[in-house]
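Risk register update: the risk of archive-format incompatibility is retired. Evidence:
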Amino acid sequence: MGNAVTQMRAARLAEITPAMRRVAEREGLDAEFVRREVAEGRAIIPANVHHLAGALDPMGIGINFTCKINANLGNSAVTSNVAEELKKLHTAVHFGSDTVMDLSTGGDLDEIRAAVIAASTVPVGTVPIYQMLLGVRDMADLTWRDMIEVIEKQARQGVDYMTIHAGVLLEHLPLIKGRITKIVSRGGSLIADWMVKRREQNPLYAHYDEICEIFKAHDVSFSLGDGLRPGCTHDASDAAQFAELSTLGELTVKAWRHDVQVMIEGPGHIPLDQVPAQVQKQIEICHGAPFYTLGPLVTDIAPGYDHITSAIGAATVGQHGAALLCYVTPREHLGLPDDKDVKQGVIAYKIAAHAADIARHRPGARRRDDELSKARFAFDWNRQFELSLDPEGARSLHDETLPSEYFKTAEFCSMCGPRFCSMKVSTHIENWEPQAAVPKKN
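Archived output:
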């Protein structure tokens, strides 16, 4: 990119990078349009220069691009290992995740992260505060130097975007009074704990320009964390959430002054009727920077099924302008997701993102739907499987009752049988024309 390190810097210099051309190819857009979106901050291309030189296949996140999804990976202090995380990575990418985040909190974090970055063709994100905490006995023992060293280490490793909870300020903390779930963001709660114990302002906010310089040197994108996001529908759209959002708008402009790319993280639990206003507020306050939402979950009563409660919110928030949807798995609120949970979460969110693309009338969004529908009406079962989000899963469900290869061209399934298939019955109806009325005899 010449002397320009970040994609935003190159875009502002009117340079179309190879990464921009690749994004344009994937989106079916003009490369100049992609460049303008990045230059204006409405889109980002998370592409750390170290990852870009390796396995990364560049992709774009923005309101005028197709809606994307993220899958969270990562171990905990009590379970999982490198092999298991790489298995999750493969599953997530295989079923269509556009980015992944390594949220590991136990074991050799550098080893796990290096393995994920080396194997990942999609952008990799992290929450560096998790690694910061492992080096101290208590959160309050962390110094700013400890924090910035972890951020720089991860940038040098090739992390494409980092969640930085710089928007949670000391003066925001009294605003959580009256909430049921207080602070549910792990990073947000740790920063709040540090500020209360040390009676100091958030160091990620106070030293934000230093972070920008590191991100600029490696082209790391900000994922500005929503540390005060609502953790239940009762807490949605409150003063604490919007106070932090206002700060994130300020930090967006600061990052752009450094030519650093930014997206804004959004709420986790929001009643369905509040979703449109939430998106509009984020777009206005954060100057059109891409919106990256966790869900949102639209009800709190379904542990074990939160991939469904959140996918409802995700489709809606995507319809109204969110650019990246962070998946929720069935094990949300209950435990560490395994490989099967990752698949369920990714499939639920591919459905949500695709529904959002159709609702926003993005060019070509419905093409696959129409092709599958034609195959369905033609009783071309193999083509239906091929076009589905999970071909093996669709085939398996069909074959549980009609496994013979003969039934791959049969004009019925086990639901209706050979006599009650509505499509078969209706094949001749469209060609029917009413006869001219016959005069009645007196």
